[in-house]
UniProtKB/TrEMBL annotation:
It catalyses: 7-phospho-2-dehydro-3-deoxy-D-arabino-heptonate = 3-dehydroquinate + phosphate. Residues 264-408 form the 3-dehydroquinate synthase C-terminal domain. GO terms for biological process: amino acid biosynthetic process; aromatic amino acid family biosynthetic process; chorismate biosynthetic process. Keywords: Amino-acid biosynthesis, Aromatic amino acid biosynthesis, Lyase, Metal-binding, NAD. This is 3-dehydroquinate synthase, chloroplastic. Residues 150-262 form the 3-dehydroquinate synthase N-terminal domain. Its cofactor is a divalent metal cation; NAD(+). It holds the Pfam family DHQ_synthase. InterPro entries: Dehydroquinate_synthase, DHQ_synth_AroB, DHQS/DOIS_N, DHQS_C. It is found in: Plastid, Chloroplast. PANTHER family: 3-DEHYDROQUINATE SYNTHASE, 3-DEHYDROQUINATE SYNTHASE, CHLOROPLASTIC. Catalyzes the second step in the shikimate pathway. It comes from Dendrobium nobile (Orchid). Belongs to the sugar phosphate cyclases superfamily. Dehydroquinate synthase family.
């Protein structure tokens, strides 16, 4: 297949948040903002703590978070009701609910459950922390639903065919039929595996994502890429399969290890760099709050990331071009992950170093200012993320891994590079090879 022509992206963010009809409590200037999910019944409002008067404050805060000139970390009130970001994919559209305490909001989950049988897929780390609450949320006031769970071993190395089979084993043993719902409770590994199981079990069943890592909340749970690894290649077997909803309880991040949190921040930074300069500037001002797990800073970062991803996915679901830009730093990053050995560095750590390399190359090509290079270094250092590949990486290791990258077309490696002002990027194979060689030589000892 011929490589598509390269193209550049610099699109202003289109907010997909809405004000629900009849409940417009927004202050002046808070247009296109909603805190309520589509169709949220009034009976459920009390349970998730919504009230019009307190929402005025909250709305102001959310409005602030949607208007990048204002700083949402300055206020006192944390988000306690869900923000909704829509992923607009025609009849496969779905909401992403974001907020604190959402695991205790049964209506949100139950409205998206099809049939009477639910299979929760999780792992040995997350089950003791959150499984009971999810089962309770699925069943409270809803006795005709029965919930089974399958608890998988934890780790990227189990994102394989053998572990996938355990999901099918449990589903078949439990007599799950076509009208059942699979619920992914965990990070990206669980989300990708459960999604792929849902895509293929009896040729497709309902699927709900409850992501519990920042990486999964800002990236992997949104957009419908599901799959497992092959021993020879990561994420090589999979399907595009969209969930019925994504439910993000920001409180789950309280138990996440620091290193995992920083790994997710690498993807947040990515959105700013490729398409949302104002968001990047906000991150520069609020990195400390994010690392300190300030709940409103995290909620804002997740919302803005999901908005960016939702917009890209709705324009290019199957990655014919635009969606590839979400892979800034990933070609170098994947080379680090495979060269260094999976699991040595977390995905976000490898992406951070890869981003620095992509930006170095963009600068060598004369496509960006020096100031952008410096700002990227600074923000990654602030986030305690690596700014160079591990010392064992060689030019040869990079080149051999990059040769099998999914973005190679007709032998040509296409890369996501920054070009122009902050927030603009290109996905292209049309660059001077010398710049790539120089970047590799500069970052590798041999
Ligand atoms: N589908 C996509 O579009 C997409 C995008 C990005 C990444 N991914 C995939 O996602 C995976 C990486 O995801 P990840 O970074 O979430 O890793 P992960 O799923 O391995 O989770 C990281 C670790 O955190 C633990 N954990 C999860 N939530 C926790 C919580 N709330 N408290 C305490 N511990 C918790 C997990 O058990 C695990 O040990 C990779 O397989 C990658 O390929 C997919
Ligand atoms: Zn990534």
């Amino acid at each position: 297949m011929a490589a598509p022509a390269s193209f550049s992206i610099h699109s202003p963010l289109r907010s997909s948040l809405r004000i629900p009809r009849g409940r417009n409590c927004s202050p002046p200037g808070a247009s296109s903002i909603s805190l309520l999910p589509r169709g949220l019944r009034s009976s459920s409002l009390g349970r998730i703590g919504f009230s019009c008067s307190s929402s005025d404050q909250i709305l102001t805060r959310v409005a602030a978070s949607s208007a990048p000139v204002m700083d949402p970390t300055k206020g006192e009130v944390a988000l306690k009701v869900p923000t909704v970001v829509d992923v607009d994919l025609g009849d496969r559209s779905y909401p992403i609910y974001i907020g604190s305490g959402l695991l205790d909001a049964p209506d949100l989950l139950q409205r998206h459950v099809a049939g009477k049988r639910v299979l929760v897929v999780t792992n040995t780390t997350i089950a003791p922390l959150y499984l009971d609450r999810v089962v309770e949320a699925l069943t409270r006031g809803n006795s005709h639903v029965s919930v089974e769970s399958v608890i998988l071993p934890d780790g990227e190395k189990y994102k394989d065919m053998g572990t996938l089979m355990k999901i099918f084993d449990k589903a078949i043993e439990s007599r799950m039929d076509r009208r059942c719902t699979f619920v992914a409770l965990g990070g990206g590994v669980i989300g990708d595996m459960c999604g792929f199981a849902a895509a293929t079990y009896v040729r497709g069943v309902n699927f709900i994502q409850i992501p519990t890592t920042l990486m999964a909340q800002v990236d992997s749970s949104v957009g419908g890429k599901t799959g497992i690894n092959h021993p020879l290649a990561k994420n090589m077997i999979g399907a595009f399969y969209q969930p019925q909803c994504v439910l993000i309880d920001t409180d789950t991040l309280n138990t996440l290890p620091d290193r995992e949190l920083a790994s997710g921040i690498a993807e947040v930074i990515k959105y700013g760099l490729i398409r949302d300069a104002k968001f990047f500037e906000w991150q520069e001002r609020n990195m400390e709050a994010l690392l300190a797990r300030d709940s409103s800073a995290l909620a804002y970062a997740i919302k803005r990331s999901c908005e960016n991803k939702a917009e890209v996915v709705s324009l290019d679901e199957k990655e014919s071009g635009l969606r590839a830009t979400l892979n800034l730093g990933h070609t170098f990053g994947h080379a680090i992950e495979s060269g260094f050995g999976y699991g040595q560095w977390l995905h976000g750590e490898a992406v951070a170093a890869g981003t620095v390399m992509a930006i170095d190359m963009s600068y060598r090509l004369g496509w960006i200012d020096r100031s952008i290079v410096e700002r990227v270094h600074n923000i990654l250092q602030q986030a305690k993320l690596p700014t160079a590949p591990p010392e064992m990486m060689t030019v040869e290791l990079f080149k051999s891994a990059m040769a099998v990258d999914k973005k190679v077309a007709d032998g040509l490696l296409r890369l996501i590079l920054l070009k122009g002002p902050l927030g603009s990027c290109v996905f292209t194979g049309d660059y001077d090879r010398k710049a790539l060689d120089e970047t590799l030589l500069d970052f590798c000892k041999s």
